Amino acid sequence: MKFLIFWTNLILSAVLIAITLAFIHYGDNLANIFIVIIGAALVGFYFFAISTATKFVISKITRDIEKIDLECPQDCDVYDELAPILVKSQRQNSETSAQIKKLKKRKKHFETITANMHEGLIILDVDYRILSCNKTALNILDGENSKRESDNAEEEIQNLTGKHVLVLCREEEFRQGIKFADDVKKMETIIEIQGKTIRMFAGLIINKAGEKQGIAILLMDISEQADREKLRREFSANVSHELKTPLAVISGYSEIITKGIAKPEDIKDFSGKIYTEAQHLLNLINDIIQLSNLDENSAFSFEKVNLYEFAQNAINQISEKATEREITCELTGETTEINAIPRLLDVILQNLLVNAVKYNCDGGKISVKIDATNERAILSVSDTGIGIPLSMQHRIFERFFRVDSARSQRQNSTGLGLAITKHAVQIHKGTISLSSVEGKGTTITVEFLIFNQKA
Questions:
Q1: Across the chain, what does the average pLDDT equal?
Q2: Among candidate residues 299, 428, 310, the one with its CA nearest the CA of residue 376
Q3: Is the pLDDT of residue 167 over 70?
Q4: What are the beta bridge partners of residue 306?
Q5: pLDDT value at residue 363
Q6: Closest by alpha carbon to 369, among 358, 383, 355?
Q7: Which residues pair with 204 in a beta bridge?
Q8: Which helix (H) or strand (E) holds 220?
């Protein structure tokens, strides 16, 4: 169009110039001048008509082309000359739509996978800006809001996309982990963030040309595993100490007797101490084995049992020891059926009652009560013994913890009874709690699921 206007203007200019020259050349000869003017006018009109007609045709073609629906070009009724172009456009549209649909499907599939991962995943670009991350990553890095609703998480992830990764976490260890990955291409480390222990994997994303495209970060919350490992180390250290003490006593007295150093009248006393320590060692080993079996979460078989009858049987088993110290035992409540593992239920009752005897006062009392609600069976064991100081009550279920080490040693206590009891209660999906007043006594309460609930 611009080309046509240019030539039209050029010709009109030439006509004007020709008329001017005609006036100059012919002077007074009006006839010749008139002929030149008429000729120039005809030439100008001719080119003007061509220009106008061309403009009209071009405008019409343009309007018709603008009406073409590029989404469905095959449905448009336009010039036959454009048919090959429209066919090609239709084919390209189909290919583009198919590719977009395929990409959306892949994106949806990727989001579904990452949303259900137990590990946190973060994808960054070369400028450390977030391209993608999943809900687990947000939960791992955010201690205050560690459990998000799915809808809130999706909205938060959309808001985070395109922002710098440090908006997720500004902890120095996290920052250094990303920088280290950028330097060495791939790395694995363990970092501590807001009280959590996190295993962090990070690696560069590199294309076929060897160019860096971004960084992929995988986060695993191993806090529970780290805590178990810490407990295992502490347990091993405590076991070593607990085993060493009776073995040292046994070894020492045995050596005195073997070398003939002991006086004849002391041999019986030394032998008694060896026997006592050997029994303590045997009890300790049995408790360790029992606790180890519980830690392994072996397959247990739940049965319908009568809690009241089990409590009565347990009282009968400790009645002799209680009678020796003139301790009375009382059972109150009603018949209550629960889902339980008989062997472990017996362990729970025995440990609670044995402790109630050990740490009671001579002439004291033990009260066992069975209550029931719509969903729970409640077992409580109370004594009138020495009680537990308030400052120590939060540690009472720890392994090898003893309130009074000297008294526990005299009572041949391993310090594992209540730890075993708590573990056994947890396997029953129950709860255990303690209430104690120093010098007045202790009450331990255990709650179980009743029989009509799934254990």
A1: 78
A2: 428
A3: yes
A4: 337
A5: 92
A6: 383
A7: 215
A8: strand 212-221
3-state secondary structure of 181: helix
Give the separation between CA 175 and CA 168, rounded to whole angstroms: 11
Is there a contact between 175 and 215 (Cβ–Cβ < 8 Å)? no
* Claim: this prediction has a pTM higher than 0.70: no
Does 166 have pLDDT greater than 60? yes
Q: Which residues of 339-373 are buried (b: 16+ CB within 10 A; e: fewer)?
A: bbbeebbbbbbbbbbbbbbbbbeeebbbbbbbebe
For 221: left if phi > 0, alpha if psi spans -120 to 50, otherwise beta; the answer is beta
Helix spans in 119-219 (H): 135-141, 150-160, 172-184
CATH topology of domain 117-221: Beta-Lactamase (3.30.450)
Contacts (Cβ under 8 Å, ≥6 apart) of 388: 396, 403, 434, 436, 438, 442
Say how many CA atoms lie within 13 Å of 365 toward its Cβ: 5
Which residues are paired to 365 by β-bridges? 328
4 Cβ neighbours under 8 A, 6+ residues apart: 51, 54, 55
- Determine the CATH number of domain 227-295: 1.10.287.130
What is 303-449's CATH topology? Heat Shock Protein 90 (3.30.565)
Domain ranges of the chain: 2-66, 117-221, 227-295, 303-449
> In this predicted model, which residue has the larger pLDDT, 101 or 381?
381
Residue of 284, 277, 283 whose CA lies nearest to 242: 284
- What residues pair up with 437 in beta bridges, in sequence order? 441
Distance CA 344, CA 297 (A): 12
- Give the residue from 163, 166, 228, 173 showing the smallest Cα distance to 199: 173
Q: How confident is the model at residue 455 (pLDDT cuts 50, 70, 90)?
A: very low
Provide the pairing of β-strand 186-193 with 441-449.
Answer: unpaired
Write out pLDDT tens, residues 43-61.
666 666 766 777 776 776 6
Amino acid type, 39: G
